[in-house]
Automatic annotation (TrEMBL):
GO terms for molecular function: protein serine/threonine kinase activity. Residues 57-155 form the Histidine kinase/HSP90-like ATPase domain. It comes from Streptomyces aurantiacus. It comes from the Bacteria. This is Histidine kinase/HSP90-like ATPase domain-containing protein. Keywords: Kinase, Serine/threonine-protein kinase, Transferase.
Length: 179
């Protein structure tokens, strides 16, 4: 097994990703094949899923990358999650990333998406380098934007917020698992 650690410094803090690569034993292996016959493996030989952190450039197309990442992450780590749950998490993530890029970054900044999944909920955090907290805008039929926080209130009532982090803020939301 080979272990590789990558440290990715960025505007949103350091990200550490550890990748474990395991290769099957073959005839050219240094290990005596007689030694391993009759023994059971103590670990899986399959690759571990996506890491829970994604760094994005502060560009509008990054919201699409975040949607794909979250859909794949939840699909891997919560394979029994309903399609409705996955699509709600994708929509919440897209809103958080879009708001972060639009109001929490400048060109050249990075946005960090952190996801955590368990049987009861999926939590998404989006970190950006601006400390200014998001605020709801008055409803308007003249604007085609400014509804992100209303969507969060609707999909994650009482389960979203903002916290300060060393290099900015993290806006988080939790989507309850549907049973």
């Amino acid at each position: 097994m080979t272990t590789t650690e990558k440290h990715l410094p960025g505007a949103c803090g350091n990200v550490r990703s550890t990748v474990h690569i395991e290769r099957p034993l073959d005839a050219d292996s240094d290990i005596d094949q007689k030694t391993i016959r009759g023994t059971k493996p103590t670990h899986s030989m399959r690759q571990v899923g996506l890491p829970p952190v994604l760094l994005l450039a502060s560009r509008p197309e990054s919201a699409g990358v975040a949607r794909t990442f979250v859909r794949e992450y939840v699909g891997h780590h919560a394979p029994r999650a309903s399609e409705d749950h996955v699509e709600t998490v994708v929509l919440v993530t897209c809103e958080l990333v879009t708001n972060s890029i639009r109001y929490g970054t400048e060109p050249g900044d990075l946005v960090r998406v952190v996801i955590d999944v368990d049987d009861s909920r999926t939590r998404v955090e989006v970190h950006d380098p601006v400390r200014r907290r998001p605020r709801a805008r008055p409803e308007s039929s003249e604007r085609d934007r400014g509804r992100g926080l209303l969507i969060l209130d609707s999909l994650c009532a009482g389960r979203w917020g903002v916290k300060e982090i060393p290099l900015g803020k993290a806006v988080w939301a939790e989507v309850k698992a549907r049973r």
